[in-house]
């Protein structure tokens, strides 16, 4: 089934060429079906690249999905045009009256800052608190995962001696959990961050379940036991060349970065890396949408509102 996107969204043409089933909004409105409504709070600087990465994964399931992009009102991104934001993005005030079946909060280039020092921290915490009632299941990626762990569960982050960048091997702690259904016993995934969270803190939190970790990169897939919060500390959504682009960007800035590990063929940055994590990326998003969004979300949110009023 398709993802429903605005007619002129730049990612749409690329997705069609990749044979991702895309349906424009006007056609979607004629379909006699209850699509899933997914809110994407996109905090990444290169928003159009992130849009494409996430839409590619959201569009590869049997479920029809409406996607709404959310931008912060308290901070204006410098790497995307205002016209793009005005055309394709909403602010929290414009959507907070709605209910959503799922929400994704992306990573952000602010991980070295204290959470409270981030320009839009108050806005993000307001969104996360609102989502407790108005969203069935939330997925948080990289900094978004650290923000959720800190805000919801009191688990802080710490700065690493050097950037964790590359492709790392991970294991699953419990293959019977629906989120990792179909995963291999061992698989690889990209990480790109200067900070991390303590695996002991995650394991010791009674509200959390550690589903996957890396001996080198630390905790990776973390789920709240009520299944409403799913924290992914890495970037399964990344394209094959995303880490290469980040590495070259940092080199040009003169930052003391090392080659991403297990990434470039023969550790040669002039060679094109391969995507060795694509299958598990699609599987993770498929499992999330199917087991934690589609099978859990109310068909009619108005019925939920009526039940809440009845019990009150």
Automatic annotation (TrEMBL):
It is an enzyme of class 2 (transferase). It holds the Pfam family HTS. Pathway: Amino-acid biosynthesis; L-methionine biosynthesis via de novo pathway; O-acetyl-L-homoserine from L-homoserine: step 1/1. Substrate binds at residues 163, 192, 249. Transfers an acetyl group from acetyl-CoA to L-homoserine, forming acetyl-L-homoserine. One of its GO terms (cellular component) is cytoplasm. GO terms for molecular function: homoserine O-acetyltransferase activity; homoserine O-succinyltransferase activity. It catalyses: L-homoserine + acetyl-CoA = O-acetyl-L-homoserine + CoA. Its EC number is 2.3.1.31. This is Homoserine O-acetyltransferase.
